[in-house]
Design a protein that fits this description.
By secondary structure, this protein is mainly alpha-helical. The protein has helices at about 5-30, 35-45, 50-65, 65-80, 85-105, 115-125, 130-155, 165-175, 175-190, 195-205, 215-230, 235, 245-275, 280-300, 305-315, 340-370, 375-400, 405-445, 450-475, 480-485, 490-510, 510-515, 520-545.
């Protein structure tokens, strides 16, 4: 048995680093998928539990880590992109997907890892700006994963030269509870069940009991079960910033593994009391146990997902809402590494904000017709909420900008910054100007003339209709509708001028109501036109033709 040297330590650390780096790159490539591909994935998840299962399986093959996929699910559930029930099928599929990595390692797939690294680098370097770049980076990441596993396996075998390590390994193979704990602890350290089992494979290949016998299925099963439980730890680290549904996803993952382990533990004792000769290497035995365990978990739980969903909801009860005055619904830091999804969530929050502002505009028209102090106070409170949402959206968009954005994402982020600012300006016009004019009209001893009041109502209704259409065009990215709105810019200016001219004509005719309310009437028309100004800017941003005016 060779001794473990300092050079072996460096090689082991290098193997761990390459393995973890490969997994990170696989996850990063998933995050760079375009919006259409992400929508396809989420759409598949939401269709049927079997579709979700297959999605989890294939996604794990891409990322080479079920832990990474589960962390993504925690984030998606936290921001309401999917429910717990939809996530459960993905979890089961990802658990099976990670067994393929172990199976390939048992078949010595790592021997082609240098070729994958060279090929992946060549493709990604030569085709930096083409669709092949993502494929090249994915191949490169897979190569790093398996080459890292190879380095860990090669150096971990010599660790047995230390009596302490040899004793711990012997105890892990002979005592099921120690084996279970060893599997959990090692996976907690490496953060990957596949890496843990690769190390165990390497050590088991050179291990024998004092009587010369080799360890078998009964000796390996507890460690395999422990590795499966330990892989849940990554998802629990994501709970620090998760919402209730994300917490439920993490607990569901752990519950699958613990329940499956409790069912499988009796087989350890059954296998130890019956002589079962398996003429395959320890590596294939461990890989087989890992695959069978996750297959039977899938067979048991996949038909029972609705019942399991209810059980998890009972286990993780709703927490009390905090007493914060206002809250966002769609902004969450978990989606920030996914610029496409993060921008989509920002659009949802801005749309919610725009609905509040549009309602404020409509309420202010009612206020002009029939002033009520309580209604004015409600508009002021809505404006406070709009100001809060504006600040939160701007902060969120700033954080998105810290990620690696492509030209399309950067342009979209700029558009959202400008649109949310324009919407906030409209809210300020309503709460700080129009409500004040409504109060002045109510206090004025001379009412608006019948013609003047009707003109204000008509112009207000025109502004409300334009605003609603512009916000709809923004929400659904309808450039055709945005163009129709923007093309009405000049005609709306002409309409404003005609209303001003009509009022001036009434002044020339010395109509008493017009003489007394001239300032209020003109100023109110100008504030409505300011709303139109920001409405057309919103349409321009959708068209991406905005220029500073």
């Amino acid at each position: 048995m060779s001794h473990f040297t300092v050079f072996d330590l460096f090689t082991l650390l290098c193997g761990i680093a390459l393995f973890l780096y490969g997994m990170q790159q696989g996850e990063k490539n998933l995050k760079k998928l375009g919006v259409a591909r992400l929508r396809q994935i989420i759409g598949a998840i939401t269709k049927h539990r079997l579709a979700a299962y297959l999605t989890g399986f294939t996604t794990t093959l891409i990322t080479q880590s079920s832990s990474a996929v589960t962390v993504l699910l925690v984030g998606f559930a936290s921001v309401q992109l999917m429910t717990l029930r939809q996530s459960l099928g993905v979890i089961l599929g990802s658990d099976l997907g990670t067994t393929m990595t172990v199976q390939l390692f048992a078949f010595k797939f790592y021997l082609v890892a240098p070729l994958l690294i060279a090929l992946g680098f060549a493709v990604s370097f030569a085709k930096k700006s083409s669709p092949f770049a993502l494929t090249g980076k994915l191949v490169l990441a897979i190569g790093f994963v398996f080459y890292g596993m190879q380095l860990m396996a090669e150096t971990s075998g010599s660790l047995r030269s230390y009596p302490v390590v040899d004793h711990m390994l012997r105890e892990s193979f002979t005592n099921p509870w120690i084996g279970l704990a060893a599997g959990i602890i090692l996976t907690l350290i490496i953060q990957s069940s596949a890496a843990t089992l690769a190390v165990v494979m390497a050590m088991a290949n050179h291990f024998s009991f004092p009587d010369g016998s080799m360890p078998g299925l009964a000796n390996f099963l507890p460690i395999v079960l422990g590795a499966n439980i330990g892989t849940c730890s990554t998802a629990f680290l994501a709970l620090l910033q998760a919402e209730e549904e994300g917490v439920r996803v993490a607990w569901a993952h752990l519950s699958f593994k613990i329940t499956g382990t409790l069912i499988a533990l009796p087989f350890v004792y059954l296998l130890s009391h019956f002589t079962i000769t398996v003429n395959v290497s320890p590596a294939f035995q461990i890989a087989g146990l890992h695959t069978v365990f996750n297959l039977y978990i899938s067979a048991v739980f996949l038909p029972l997902l609705p019942l399991f969903d209810r059980a998890i909801h009972r286990l993780v009860v709703s927490r009390k809402k905090d007493e914060q005055r206002f809250r966002t619904q769609f902004l969450h830091e978990k989606v920030l590494p996914f610029p496409v999804l993060a921008l989509s969530q920002a659009v949802k929050e801005i749309s919610r904000m725009s609905d509040i502002v549009a309602q404020m505009v409509e309420d202010s028209l009612e206020l002009i017709m029939n002033y009520d102090f309580r209604a004015s106070s409600r508009i002021a409170e809505k404006d406070d909420e709009v100001d809060f949402l504006h600040e939160q959206v701007m902060t969120f968009l700033t954080h998105i900008a810290r990620e690696e954005l492509g030209p399309d994402e950067a342009s979209r982020a700029y558009e959202l910054v400008m649109v949310t600012t324009d919407i906030e300006h409209i809210g300020d016009i309503v709460s700080k100007s129009i409500t004040e004019f409504a109060e002045k009209i109510d206090r004025s001893p001379t009412p608006l003339s019948a013609e003047g009041r009707q003109e204000i109502v008509d112009f207000f209704n025109t502004a409300i209709g334009l605003l609603r259409e512009a916000l709809a065009a923004f929400t659904i990215s309808d450039r055709v509708l945005a163009r129709k709105i923007y093309d009405r810019k000049e005609s709306t200016k002409d309409l404003f001028s005609s209303y001003v001219d009509r009022h001036m004509n009434r002044l020339y005719n010395r109509k008493s109501e017009s003489l007394q309310t001239t300032s209020i009437h003109i100023d109110l028309l100008e504030e409505i036109q300011r709303i139109n100004h920001f409405t057309f800017r919103i349409a321009a941003h959708v068209l991406k033709i905005y220029r500073a005016e």
